[in-house]
Amino acid sequence: MDEGKAWTSSQSTHLVVAAGAAARLALFLAAPALCHALERRPELSTPLTSIRNLREGVFIYERGTNPYDGGVFYHSPVYLAFFTYILPVSSYLLTALLWTFADIASSIALIRIWQTRAKFQSRKREFLVAGLFLFNPYTILSCLARSTVSLDNAILIGAIATTAIGHSLPATCLLAIASHSSLYPLLLLPPLVMLLTKESPIAQKSTSVFHVTIQYIALHAAISGLNWILADRSWIAQTWGVIINVTDLTPNVGMWWYFFTEMFDHFRTFFLGVFQLHNLIYVVPICLRFSDDPLFATVILVGIFGTWKSYPNLGDMALWAGLLGCFPEVISNLRHPLFTLTVHLYTSILLPLLHSLWLLTGTGNANFFYAATMVYGLNASLAIVDVMGAGLRVQVKRKASELLLREDLEDHKGIQDSSDKLTDKVWERKGWSVVQFTRSLM
């Protein structure tokens, strides 16, 4: 009977993955006009992730001209080479298959992340992890728009999954590629190095950290060398330079475009430093505070730069939501999940509506759309704070349970469930709750 249930659960995981692939391919084939319309949406594609810009760059490059000389092509040379020599970006069917494969690979990598974290087998949780990512509207729309954020997400999730498994070479290689395509994954190097060296003996930890760091630097330099051969040095200013200096002010769901449109030139450099520092400043404190759980620190940082990077889109939030699905104990300790989901629904309606009022009907102005992006950014920031607080509450519950509830947990030891879920049940039965967690219990 148990084997039959396990087989049914395993089969359901395969079915949800197959259903996600089938739904994407069906939409690609049945509604090509919708897919072409989504390519133009600023919520889904930015100048750095738009397939329309990618097609233009490949077209220019195939005719013997460097696309980075024109000032309108911002994609990484990695994508330029791939879609020139390996897979033609002009092929609608092949690109549809590639983007579908990227989402499927992301869901499988998320399942692997969950499996490395879980201390017990739960096919139901694997089904939920895959389903929540594959059928997230932000994930589906980004895939149909063929925004390269879907490919970026697949590479980054692959880097996190291989890190969680403990394979340093593929992890650092994938992280180096992700850093080249969107730069901000570079901020994930500290927590991922911590995760790779977590099981190393204390005497060898410094050597392991040095080895992994040098490995990443070498791979990053090798990819940079290949990019230099492909596109000379002009690619640096047109990829990383645009991300850092925000020279293209095309509207998106971020906070930067409107702010720097209104900014006087003599203040611009100062505020660029402030905005970029806002992404950087959280790395060290979060890694120190969650040093016992580097994977959770990684998820927090993904949420931060997915919200506050210079060119965000809805696909970045899909990535963060997918990773958060691997932490059910954190989700169960959130304070305001309904509020967060409601405001996300609210902004998903407002963003296209106010953008249309501004640019299509002419009955609004840029302030309308920017107000919606501010609501989106504020809600995402509050969600990150809520998730961080939930993670801290989980830590306090674990420590308090080890000290005070050892006998109660022993009574439930035979139940096939996670330790965190057992802890929540015991706390709920006793009527306890975490009201403050600023002091150490040990």
UniProtKB/TrEMBL annotation:
It is found in: Endoplasmic reticulum membrane. The keyword Endoplasmic reticulum applies. One of its GO terms (cellular component) is GPI-anchor transamidase complex. GO terms for biological process: attachment of GPI anchor to protein; GPI anchor biosynthetic process. It is a multi-pass membrane protein. Pathway: Glycolipid biosynthesis; glycosylphosphatidylinositol-anchor biosynthesis. Signal peptide: none annotated. The keyword Amino-acid biosynthesis does not apply. Keywords: Endoplasmic reticulum, GPI-anchor biosynthesis, Membrane, Transmembrane, Transmembrane helix. PANTHER family: GPI TRANSAMIDASE COMPONENT PIG-U, PHOSPHATIDYLINOSITOL GLYCAN ANCHOR BIOSYNTHESIS CLASS U PROTEIN. Belongs to the PIGU family. This is Phosphatidylinositol glycan, class U. It comes from Kwoniella dendrophila CBS 6074. The lineage of its organism: Eukaryota, Fungi, Dikarya, Basidiomycota, Agaricomycotina.
